[in-house]
Amino acid sequence: MAEEFNQYFSSCATKLASDIPASDDDPLRHVPESTTTFCLHPVEETKVLSELLKLKTKKSTGLDKIPAKLLKDSAPVIVKPLTHIFNLSMSMGEVPNDWKMARVSPIHKAGKRDNVSNYRPVSVLNVASKVMERIVHNQISHFMDRNGLLTAHQSGFRKHHSTGTAVQKVVEDIKSAFNAHKVTVALFLDLRKAFDTVNHEILLGKLQKMGFDSGTAHWFRSYLTDRFQCVDIQNKLSALSRVTCGVPQGSVLGPLLFCIYTNDLPKVVRKCSIHMYADDTVIYYSASLLNECEDAVSEDMRRAANWFKENRLSLHPDKTKSMVFGLPQKLRHTGKSVSVTDGLNTFEQVDSFTYLGVTMDPSLQWAPHVEMITRKLLAGLGALRRAKPFVTKGILQLMCRTLLYSHLDYCSTAWLPSLLNSNKSKMIQLNRLINRAARIITGSKLKDHKPIESLLAEAGMEPLTGRVKENTLVTVYKAVRNKAPPYLTQMFKWMSPPVLKVRTRAAAKQLADWDPHLLTIPQSNVQSFKGSLQFQGPTLWNELSIDRRRLTGVVPGMSASIVLLATSVLSCLGCVYLAYILYFILQDACIVCISTYVINTLLLIVNIKRVLIQRNALLKKKQ
């Protein structure tokens, strides 16, 4: 059985890659020549020790049978020889052969269990090799982030990026189109075994064009080639088989290398918007006319199909779906039917599509997604009910967070605000399930007529409405502190200061009262736009108290304790403003914030001086 699986896994990707028609075009023609150079540099023992201590001890072991716990516990002893091996590997441009062998476990996906094609290979590499990969990964990521080499359209496996931010980006773009009375045609692409069919020579060529020097490219050639795998079924290993293409599955570097491999795909998509999370790609276009959208997506899809051919990747036409998004009244006017093609295939149009775990419908009312969430919540409630007689209340609360709130919180800022705004019946449906969970945890019955607020508090739970507002504010907080992708941080704009045309006391007071910590709320032309993050986020943010807005990260890295300490030590109000100014300068704050507090301080000093003069005058009269 192990041999049969191994033969299938090792030959499937190779056969698929060989079936792709050859292209006469250069696959590197869309990759710009880098003006900077990257080379792997030696690593210090302290860095290796840090990576060893970060190891998760429950990780599976590779073929060397050395567990992560052993490496972690013995880190102070092995760090010196391990650092020597890592540096020797990088200086010589060679990866140890024993670190290029993977143990593969077949995991059933769906369908008949006696069919090997219904299984997914999960590769496990030696732990020590993954420590070295992590060090190399950090060096590459730092180089690419510093030089802005990775496309902003890729959210996969990057700092501050996630599936949630990718979904949010696409949803916000579609809702912006709603607000402009436009429709959107989207094409969700599916690639066959994308990671497994990456061509090594093309990848190495792209690395060199991105600035990787010859020594580093030689190390990556050694890393990618002469790799072997065997299948493990119930501790019975198959023979080793060679892996000739693809990035190593189960590796640390594999996802980053795939992102580099597809980094130039957005360059061929000229009319449409494109967003990627690893190999999950969506192309979409918004316009007033449906025909215009259809033509634009088809035109860019033809270019993308040529790019796939040049780069030896295979599109799965049967799983690639098109979809039309628009408000119901707009779709009644424009129609709903489109025919998107790449020149060879016409892609099926669907009424709903699950993108990165979130089921989208044409009007983004989220009814199909709520139904999917409801099924998961009901299963979680059943588990809670069965576990209640045997576990403590604390365990039940933990189960509730794991089995219920994890589904509700996933990408919640993309879909839950819409329920609060325009689909309240679905919100009530979800709230009832949360209330049922609270009754299971507390043992309360419906006939007890206990208020929901006290019931949730007793169960250690929070209302869904409050939770979605909290998640929205957290997202805004990350965005204004630059802890989110650029496509989210650019969504929020600080409110501009008032323009003073005439210098009067009223105008001066208006400027003094201006709060630079307010966000601009975009104009909403349709009701559904009010459920978007770009509308809900600034609205909720501006509703916070002035102190919370000022102490909640307007300046990147702001520490509330510093300002509070200064304000407690310095008693006069003018000194409080001076404390803010001093802190902003130390934190390299924006000039708008600094200048605002300077103006406010000067106005305050003038007012204090005026009051003192008036008081002195009164004292003289009394005398």
UniProtKB/TrEMBL annotation:
PROSITE patterns tied to this protein: RT_POL (PS50878)
Any one GO cellular component localisation term in the record: membrane
Alphabetic keyword roster: Disulfide bond, Membrane, Oxidoreductase, Quinone, Redox-active center, Transmembrane, Transmembrane helix
Sample GO molecular function, one term: quinone binding
Major location category of this protein: membrane
Annotated transmembrane regions: 554-579, 585-606
Occurrences of domain Reverse transcriptase (ranges): 88-360
A matching Pfam family: VKOR
Domain of life (superkingdom): Eukaryota
InterPro entries given in the database record: DNA/RNA_pol_sf, RT_dom, VKOR, VKOR_sf
Membrane topology classification: Multi-pass membrane protein
Places the protein is found: Membrane
Family affiliation: Belongs to the VKOR family.
Name under which the protein is recorded: VKORC1L1 protein
Species this protein is from: Branchiostoma lanceolatum
Gene designation: VKORC1L1
